[in-house]
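tool_log.txt
---
The assistant was asked to compare two proteins side by side. It first ran the structure predictor on the initial sequence, then on the second. Raw inputs and outputs are pasted verbatim so the downstream comparison step can read them without reformatting.
(1)
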Amino acid sequence: MLQTLKNAWRVDEIRRKLIFTGIILLLYRLGCAIPVPFVDSKTIAEWFSGNADNLLGYFSVINGEAFSQATLFALSISPYITASIVMQLLAVAIPALERMSKEGPEGQKKITQITRYVTVALALVTAYGYYRALDSRGALTSDGWFAGLVIVTSYCAGASLIMWLGEKINDNGIGNGISMILFVNIVSSLPSMFGSAINLVKEGGKQYIASVVAIAVIMVAIVFFVVWITNSERRIPVQYAKRQMGRKVYGGTSTNLPIKLNMSGVMPIIFAQSIVTLPSTLALIFGWKTDSGFFQYFSMTSYIGVAVNFALIIAFSYFYITISFNPVEVANNLKKNGGTITGIRPGKPTTDYIVKVLNRITFIGALFLGFIAVFPQVIYWLFPNSGMASMVFGGSSLLIVVGVILETFRELEGQITMRNYKGFLS
């Protein structure tokens, strides 16, 4: 990886993209430190310190320290992610949006513009809910409509600015804007996690040293496991027939059609956790009690909540593959270029075979994502008094970090290869 980064830095265009991405992420982190008027940060810190293992703890990790400090970027990328989920679901359900998404660049521009409007609307609702939550807990230094207007407007403007920063990374930088911002949020919380582990050892003594060591060993093992699964692929053998054009003969070669085991990356986890946390988020907005009843079943630490999260990850894995990979188009391209899968006839049999393989691969990848997302909570249930509470939500966060690093370096390698390719004119 270091050699890839070194080679990428030597290419002027890639170096500019890396610098641009770094500047955007730096601006984002600066925005996370800008305080919002009329908010008491000390009261918020006390509120979050007693809720480290519930929904607020999850938001604090995914949205960075900005959420627990109620700064300008407190809402982070969450409204944009939710808007993207809504638009992808509507594009499947509404024919007009489906046709728009297939119109090429112009249709994608329209979809993107609608997504922006939905993001602003969701940011406005979430900002108002966050303001109500702060007000109900006495975290405001001033009452009245003006203070509320300033706070809601600041949070909504911060979410809109983050959306713009993410799109700028997509257009002029390296990597996916949403993934890069999530990566920075999680990495920024690592110092506080290490500090909590050190304090745990100091306060608890030798009895917690084994827990901290076990957490470290498990995290290292997960990193290797995630890297292995992410780089795994199913290779379908493809044979191209010989074709004569003029005096030259083309084709007659054997190659492979690679299908990634985890083709959807971390997006199913992000989608699923956004849906699972929706009831608790609504309760946070409207000030409803969540210590019993319906909300208790869908909390991030309940049995039903974890089971629903696991099921949604599998469902979103299939959904994401459906909208990102078209077996019919792949089969038609193979047929047009004279390629056939060994032992499979061209046309519909090829499509059916690719669908069968894709379903099996997707199921294995979905189980992997579900396991990574829920196993920290399962360990906490098995060892509730071992000091492993800090592992909750750690699995998905670690998967996001490792996945973003691998995808970013894969993109760098692709751009380096493309710019160093020697064609027939060189």
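(2)
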Amino acid sequence: MSEKQVVSRHGSLMVYQDLLVATLPLLAMAVFLYGPRPALLWLAAVVTANLCDQLVALLRHRPFDPLEFSNESFGAMLVLLLPASVSYYVVIVSVAVAVLVGKEAFGGLGCYPFHPTAVGYAVAAVSWPEQVFSFPQPGTWLPVVNAGSAGLMQSASYTLKNGGTPRIDTLNLMLGNYAGPMGATAVVILVACALLLAVRRRIQWDAALPFLAACFAIAWLFPRMGRVGLALPWVKAPVRLASVGYELCSGTILYTGIFMLSDPAILPRHRAARVAFGLTLGVVSMLYRYYGSYETGVCFAMILVGSFASAFDRLHLRWLDRKEALNQ
């Protein structure tokens, strides 16, 4: 391996270390809201991911790399998308699927076409929807072993999907003090994580910003609350603004833009193609939220749009070739 390849691989591995570290503030907030159970779920996810990595190394007769934390970061990101009341076996199975199917089945690090976390979450959502989409009320101290007896409720995303209006004030929305995924609700902590990753130059802004902008635009133009209907964009602006706040902050959209889109392996190589990728992902994610079977559809959109990441690059190169031909 050349010196350039070694430096590139080292930089790639550091991305996943930083993503793993960035999950810790969200985990700390979840422990504050629900007790020690989120920490045990996080630990189960990380250990499962590590064991899967060692198993693959054994089966492929290659040395195990203890400094390669991509699997652990995928597991940590996945468990924070789930409720604090989810069963341990759901975490273990979904993380194993994320690593073995979402990553290793396609060739390992950097070879997967869509984010392994999205694959694991999709399997959990389809297989155990009653657990994935039912959430405990923040402030409920959950039992460590069996949280099935805890009072569970639906999320703000479920309320929006069924035509209702969530009753969450701005302060609780910022602090994550409402029912939802244990790591994707606290906007203040998510912003802090984004600043950390930005300082480390891990966030792929050319994909994340178009993604968030597309989600913002659709939530503003076609709000699901207030019965705005087809009206001019400035009509009922306060209702539209509230809709944007709920759509971007109460589900997994902000979490996806910060964490999942920070993995360069799933993105096109060229900047213009990444912008198109982010815009497309935002539109498809909102379509899933509005019309999909599940209240949270970002991970399903990641799988669908991720399948066409290389196509965005090819279209960009064709456009450059045509532009060059016209200028000659």
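---
observation on (2): Residues 111 and 235 are 47 Å apart (CA to CA). Strands lie at 135-136, 152-153.
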